[in-house]
Amino acid sequence: MTNLEPKIVFDFFDEICKVPRPSKKEEKISAWLVETGKKLGLETKRDKIGNVLISKPATPGRENVTPIIFQAHMDMVCEKNNDTKFDFEKDAIQSYVDGEWMKAKGTTLGADDGIGMAMALAILASKDLEHGPVECLFTVDEETGLTGAFALEPGFMKGKMLLNLDSEDEGQFFIGCAGGKDTVATFDCEWDTEIDKNSVAYNVTVKGLQGGHSGDDINKGRGNAVKLLNRLLWNGYQEYGLRIADIKAGNLRNAIAREGSALVVISKNDAKDFEQYLKTMNEAYKNEYFVTDPSVEVCFESTTMPKKVLDEGLQVDLMNCLYACPHGVLAMSQNIKDFVETSTNLASVKIEGEKIIVTTSQRSSVESKKQDAVDMVTATFWGTGANDVTSSDGYPGWTPNPDSKVLEVLVQAYKNLFKKEPQVLAIHAGLECGLFSEKYPGLDMVSYGPTLRGVHSPDEKLEIKTVKMCWDLTVEFMKILK
């Protein structure tokens, strides 16, 4: 990264990549931020949950400028390819430059939101910027529950305007976002230990899907590994009496499932036909997803016979649940063109001990429609035999304010630099701004950032040139803010 510009931003991003920061395990990055703030000689404080606030006084003559908050989250989504050996709690992210993009070797890059953190730290460390009073807020656990934003106490920060550095398309300014909830179903495992001796076992895998962010990418028609794997199993049961011994597909509730595998048992007499069936479905998936997921692949291999399989009635309930559970866009906005209003993500299914856990997430910019999506998924789970269904408290949406003053200044700064108008939008992904507006009524906010692609997956990449564009925009914004 040493040759990239702006150097101060990429130097900080390089340091951030060395510090482990999984969601809910931000102790190391939180401590590093506190240490960095103190090394810079700036007022630094940390609240009970681990959020960090670093304050920088105005440059001479700018003391009366409106106080501004720059905000980014500490944690990152920890996804890796199955063949990548990596410990997110210990290892440094292995970033590299590939043409115009920065990527990571086999894992998520963590530019969501590491690059936002790096920009905020660069503001704090720079000696030649013109600015009013600045606060930089770094929150914990944005990705798996917005815990830091939920726990933020009134009075922790003093700024009147907030710039959220957590968006993923340069030239787009976001002034509203969807709210969300998670819905989880649990099945109690029941087992059958009497397996026909004339049986064979296979590991069946669906892989090669793009996956992506369950908010930003839900409308792109990409395959879902939970759905595609279950489709194989459901039809395999109908045709060959397939029995499931284990299943694991998907991972995080805010990521579209990219990979999934199941350990299955069938009669030895059906083995050749079953293998041909899987080959046929491999071609079917490639044909169905030749644009959005051209690398999709169904793989299988013979393996050791398991000692038990799921009870047949339970297996049928589970497969019916996964087939019936909705996934994807449920409604488009009625007043914002091409904007997803309501969606649901079938995120994962896995056997853990004596439980089968199915995780989903629902999003909507309309509160009542969000609850309707939750109820729809809940009804599916109850109707297919789940022992328990729970929904999180969720997080609120962020109502757009087209008359925002911070937006007005940011748009002017963009036009000054790039001689064109930026796009002003709402986003279907969740942002912490909705919670900030509850804690700090009247806080004027906009979200922006450099271009990222493939976030929440090992395909995550950062467009290098857009980092400088966002940095220059931030500098110009602070310069013209009155």
Describe the structure.
This protein is an alpha+beta fold and 482 residues long. It folds into two domains: 7-178 and 397-480, Zn peptidases (Aminopeptidase, 3-Layer(aba) Sandwich); 181-391, Alpha-Beta Plaits. Helices cover 30% and strands 28% of the residues. Strands 9, 11, 13, 15, 16, 18, 19, 20 and 21 form a nine-stranded antiparallel beta sheet that branches. Strand 1 (43-46) and strand 2 form a beta hairpin. Helix 1 (7-17) packs across helix 3 (111-125), helix 5 packs antiparallel against helix 6 (271-288) and helix 9 packs across helix 11. The chain is elongated, with a radius of gyration of 24 Å. The protein starts with 6 loop residues before the first helix and ends with a helix. 49% of the residues are buried. The model has no long low-confidence stretch (mean pLDDT 95).
Describe the structure using short key phrases:
elongated; Alpha-Beta Plaits; single chain; 482 residues; 28% strand; 30% helix; 6-stranded mixed sheet; Aminopeptidase; alpha+beta; 9-stranded antiparallel sheet
